Amino acid sequence: MSEQASYKQELALFGTRARQRRLAAALAISAVLPFIFSPFLLDLANQVLLASIGALALMLLTGFAGLISLGTAGLLGAGAYTVGVLVREAGAPFWITLPAAAVVGAGLGLIFGLPSLRLRGLYLAISTLGLHFVVVYLGGEYEAREVLSTGVMIDSPSLGRFTLTSGRAWYFVLLAFAAFALLVSVNLQRSRTGRAWRALRERDVVAGALGINVQRFKLLAFMISATMTTIAGALFAYFRNFVSIDAFSLYLTVQYVAMIIIGGMGSIPGALLGAAFVILFPYAIEAIAGYLPARFSNMVFALDYAAFGVVMILFLLLEPAGLMGIWQRVRNTIAAWRAPKRARRAPQ
Amino acid sequence: MSLQLVANIVVLAAIYALVSTGYVLIYRVSRVLNLAHGELMMIGAYLLVATAGAFSGNPLLALLLAAAGGLVMGMVVYAVLMRWLTGEAVLAAVLITIALGILLRGLSILIWTTQQYYPGAMFGWHNPPVRIAPGVQISAASLAIVLITVIVYAGLFIFLQFTRWGVRMRAAGQNPLLAEQRGIRLHGIYAFAWGLSTFTASLAGMLLSLDSGVESTMATIGLKAFPAALVGGLDSLLGAAIGALIVATAEIAAIQYVNPLLSDVVPFLVLLIVLAIRPWGLFGSREQLDRV
After folding, report:
1. With contacts defined as CB-CB under 8 Å, which chain A residues touch B100?
2. Taking the CB of residue A348, how many other CB atoms lie within 10 A of it?
3. Interface touch A122/B94, C-beta < 8 Å
4. Average pLDDT over residues A23-48
5. What is the CATH number of domain A39-345?
6. ipTM score of the complex?
7. Are residues B279 and A123, on separate chains, in Cβ contact within 8 Å?
8. Which of A4, A256, A304, B19 is the most exposed place for a label (fewest CB within 10 A)?
């Protein structure tokens, strides 16, 4: 073991036995889950999978490259509306609408990213917020012009005789997309691009001095993140069979920002944990609301808002490293508790 | 352009100008952008609903109590939340204000539901239209908004320029370290700036609720006032007033001549244009800007 591992070995994702075993276990569990889950739990799992794509995209942008965006809801809406407009105007099938959503995402990513070449921090967040309102306006304008009071209906995607409707089928489709997003994120993180982003996040002037093309990598971060987000939005449109601009409010953006904060900024597993937490949170509140006086249980959504605000504040004040920070601490405690025993057993 | 249109622009500009003083005050002393400002303004309006319910026979007392509540509200927010983040990364503080906004939105619905309230009607006051020129009418509450905005701006100018606390506040904004070394208590200054900020926001919220009632969507108006503050330059009060005039003119013109649906997006279009051309705003100080 004294030899240095080669770069290739370092980069190998599933190089070691332990990793292969973990991967096999994860695959086996995710393959079995949909056959154990009730339809309700299956729907929850699907929502979490869908949200984790958007959370990973935002984590790449904010957690790795350090570029703050408040445009997630606008991008999700743009993806969903690309599908909605293409289906309504041209009856396009999914193998046209999904790539179209990706193209729209890359283009919007470029536009959302352009301010980042001049602005930083707060001002960047504000410019993406402005773009959010522009996208939402365009969607609302389309709905108004077409006189759609309830949004655009979208048929489930079908290929040949197979139509994607059942929760179980959706589970495997979304699992594939989420796994692909995860693979992309992990690969970006540990390769040249990810290192460039981390350098940008710490200090972009120094990154430039080190020979990193600052503008290129900033725009790349925005484009990759936006493409992932619009694809998630397109999947959302098909998943719900329905697009309405009301679904893409500023609150949705806040939820995605909360996912990466609560999960743990700069951590890929954190994005997944955060997505699960934020998606499941309203259901937990709903369950608790059943025990409260009728005055409150009738207004579950307001209770949800208030509780969500409190949880976000608590994480920001008390555990800025998020759920991953808590997990790390638990692991350290266990390791510290076991270490003395192991030291005693080991021969001197 | 008719005179009526000009009057409408002035009223909208006064609303934006009154609300955006809050953004400017907090940004100027602590470089924090308060994204819960719209929600705080809405709570201010609800405070008037509460005091109007308790003292419906005495409107002046109700108004004064609600305004005092607005002042205390900001200090409480600072003492309970923002104090812990002084000196931390500005981003964490901004995220906290987003969370606070969501919390306040939820709480306000839990307390006051989604029903619309008319505090004016609770006093038995029905907001008569006022003729200010031949053929030009605005509501009495709108006239009050314009007048009070002028008074607030004059008051803030005198306060920041000539009073001891105002000078301290400017000092804290320019250089916190030096200010503290000169014996200025930063926590006190910051708390006071938050109080003033929510006080002016509450005034705006109350006057708007006298004009058109208050419901849970009022917070959006607070957010739309933010572009006004930024167009003028986030740390300049004069800039906020002129920015408000620009944004209001663009918005009313778009509603009148192009498409009423544009109302919500025009302020942000103006904001994007300013960010692209002159990110520090018309009157903002250039060197402090977080630019690349």
Report:
1. 309, 313
2. 3
3. yes
4. 89
5. 1.10.3470
6. 0.87
7. yes
8. A4
